[in-house]
UniProtKB/TrEMBL annotation:
Pfam families: PD40, Peptidase_S9. Keywords: Hydrolase, Protease, Serine protease, Signal. The lineage of its organism: Bacteria, Pseudomonadati, Pseudomonadota, Alphaproteobacteria, Sphingomonadales. Residues 129-156 are annotated as: Disordered. It comes from Stakelama saccharophila. This is S9 family peptidase.
């Protein structure tokens, strides 16, 4: 039990204890890392290598690890690193998704910058308006990208600019965002996706206050359009009743492969997408070539095969490559037994193999997959975690996005099996005193299974010195911690380490990095052997005199919040816990989450298996013996794990007279977006552990 005056201090006082003003020195002068330092870090994504292999384009954003940044720009760097990276396509808002034309002369991209397309616009390129029936030509009218008063709606539109620089011109003015742009092989057309606009009667109804939402009855589908650069116009080609999420052209440009589903909701996108053949000239949808598709389609350079990745049911996130042969009408399964997670699948330049990223244990590799046998061979083992890579048209040059232990995400060049950084986006980090990041492993004492994880020790840590320790659990369960950069609003390790904490980041069973069977090993068993994996890892750190057994904290987001709540209700080993957006009561979670297939994949039908759901629900195990102080954090508009679940756990603790605080962030989904909210999460996490450990 925690004693003394600190636990009875008000939360405002606790926050003051951890405020930046309390830091003796700023991070760039050798002081501890503050939440404000983390919020100044840039992130990057969308790596796009020019066809000739000379130039890399990539998107830089002003927030780490968020899906909805307020500002993004497109940067360029020579692939050989011969000069520094520089901003290349810049506006006051969002510029992202750079795509080179096949001849390398043009760059298509998306932007929400001010769009001059109004009645044809001064650019000379005609605007696009949507039709309600497809296929068909565009029709004239007021461009949906602006209101009748000329106000911009802020949606992302398709733009084009010369690769050698110069002015960018807009190609579209759709009512909704344009997404997933793909050049045709001859460079004469650009395929793109955009969501249906509101019909006039819908707008009239909303004006009358009739703004109710009918669940599972969305009428707004994501549609496929093709822009003709010569005619300066576009037509919608996808038929009614299909939601399109990805597209690829055949090498001859006559056919397409699409990833589609029948409903425009997130659950259908994740679990019920399929890859189909498609004739853009007639709008005819052909046969389905891959069910439950999660990535793809990717048409082979010779036009004979189409690759994709399938979710391995029941519905987790485990992915497996598949190759469809058009001539023989056969689908080949590849690498189902690979001991890692394969993502970012693509064909090699010659089409003789597939390339992919493979996340294994706690690090990424670039690998080559034999499309006939599924054999996986390592091209490059990376020192950290990668989420994107690209190759040039000849396959001679390769680059990757990579976060390494001592630096946030950068572009790295890969040559002869070696990787080297060619950008330095966050130069200030070189002056920070960082925790040491390393991969560790231990065994579960019940079944002997080897478990991997990441350990971050404070700067200047002396081995054999038991130190206050925070266990941070990742989301998922199928996700994983990496031996790379660990500093963002929900990755607390480097910040905590700089304040004198050991941070233990385990990848228990259920995680990625050890194959499909390992990821599936928590079916019907959240809080079972996965929790045992974590506790055995913690025992290992105590035995090694790394973790102080009397000063232990635990916390995490999503599934990490769940397992932290589980720890609170299963003993008092931890002196503080942070439960971030945790699904702590699985029956209501399964029935109200926006991805209902997700819990069903672990536990099955709710009515039939209700006892199993309840058996794994920390909210149903709250009891008088709990002593761990708990901080509950939750997004106020979280549809994945609704905030009522966090409130249930918090209120349950308070009704028992236990120490607990709860903070809700208005308007935030499951993954927080607002910089002020992201900063506040880090501030409160640090204050909570400082007060109780």
């Amino acid at each position: 039990m925690t004693t003394g005056i600190i636990p009875r201090l008000g939360l405002a006082v606790l926050l003051a204890l951890a405020s930046p003003a309390a830091t003796a020195q700023p991070a760039n002068e050798g002081g501890a890392i503050a939440p404000s330092d983390i919020m100044k870090l840039d992130d990057m994504r969308d790596v796009a290598l020019s066809p000739d292999g000379d130039t890399v384009l990539f998107t830089v954003q002003r927030q780490m690890a968020t899906f909805s940044p307020p500002h993004q720009n497109i940067w360029a760097v020579p692939s050989d690193g011969s000069s520094d990276a520089r901003p290349f396509i810049v506006s006051a808002g969002i510029d992202n998704t750079p795509r080179w034309s096949p001849d390398g002369r043009w760059i298509a991209f998306l932007s929400n910058r001010d769009n001059p397309l109004l009645g044809g616009g001064e650019s000379g390129i005609s605007f696009i308006t949507e039709t309600t029936d497809a296929p068909g030509p565009p029709v004239a009218g007021t461009p949906p990208g602006k209101s009748s008063s000329g106000e911009q709606d802020g949606s992302k539109q398709l733009w084009l600019m010369p690769a050698n620089g110069g002015g960018a011109v807009p190609l579209t003015a759709m009512s909704a965002d344009v997404t997933d742009i793909v050049w045709s092989p001859d460079g004469k057309h650009i395929a793109f996706l955009s969501t249906d606009p509101q019909a006039p009667e819908e707008k009239q109804a909303r004006a009358r206050g009739e703004d109710w939402i009918e669940r599972d009855h969305s009428r707004h589908f994501n549609r496929l359009w093709i822009y003709d650069l010569a005619k300066r116009s576009a037509r919608r080609v996808s038929p009614a009743g299909l939601n399109v999420s990805a597209v690829d052209w055949s090498p001859d440009g006559r056919r397409m492969a699409l990833r589609v589903n029948d409903r425009p909701d997130i659950n259908a996108y994740f679990y019920h997408s399929r890859i189909v053949l498609f004739d853009p000239a007639t709008g005819k949808v052909g046969k389905t070539i891959l069910e439950h598709a999660a990535e793809g389609p990717f048409w082979s350079p010779d036009g004979k095969r189409i690759a994709g990745e399938a979710i391995l049911l029941p519905g987790f996130i485990s992915l497996a490559p598949r190759v469809y042969d058009l001539a023989s009408d056969t689908l080949t399964k590849l690498a189902d037994d690979h001991p890692g997670l394969l993502t970012k699948l693509r064909w090699s330049a010659g089409g003789d193999s597939l390339l992919a990223l493979s996340f294994e244990k706690t690090r990424s590799k670039v690998v080559r997959i034999d499309p006939a046998t599924g054999a996986v061979a390592t091209i490059t083992a990376l020192d950290g975690e990668s989420s994107d890579f690209d190759i040039d048209a000849d396959g001679d040059t390769m680059v990757a996005q990579l976060s390494s232990p001592a630096r946030p995400t950068d572009v790295w060049a890969i040559d002869h099996g070696k990787a080297r950084p060619i950008t330095r986006l966050n130069r200030q980090v070189a002056d920070w005193k960082l925790g040491k990041v390393r991969q560790i492993h231990w065994r579960n004492h019940k079944d002997g299974k080897t478990i991997y994880g990441v350990l971050v020790t404070p700067p200047g840590y002396t081995p054999g010195s038991p130190t206050r320790t925070v266990v941070q659990i990742h989301g998922g369960p199928e996700w994983a911690w990496w031996a790379g950069w660990l500093g963002s609003w929900h990755e607390w390790a480097q910040m905590l380490a700089s304040h004198g904490y050991v941070v233990f980041l385990p990848n228990p069973r259920g995680s990625d990095g050890q194959g499909v069977d390992f990821a599936r090993a928590v079916g019907n068993d959240w809080g079972g052997m996965d929790y045992q994996d974590v506790m055995d890892g913690l025992d290992y750190l105590v035995d090694q005199k790394i973790a102080d057994p009397d000063r232990l904290g635990i916390g995490g987001w999503s599934y990490g919040g769940f397992l932290s709540a589980w720890a609170v209700t299963h003993g008092n080993r931890f002196k503080a816990a942070v439960v971030g957006a945790g699904p702590v009561d699985l029956v209501p979670f399964a029935r109200i989450t926006d991805t209902p297939d997700f819990p069903l994949g672990y536990y099955g039908d709710v009515t039939t298996h209700m006892a199993d759901y309840d058996r794994s629900s920390p909210a149903r195990m709250l009891n008088e013996d709990i002593e761990t102080p708990v901080l509950v954090l939750h997004g106020g508009a979280d549809a994945r794990v609704p905030p009522t679940l966090g409130l249930e756990f918090y209120r349950g603790l308070k009704m028992l007279g236990k120490e607990a605080e709860m903070v809700t962030y208005p308007g935030e989904p499951h993954w927080l977006h607002e910089p002020a909210h992201q900063k506040d999460v880090q501030r409160r996490v640090l204050a909570w552990f400082d007060a109780h450990l």
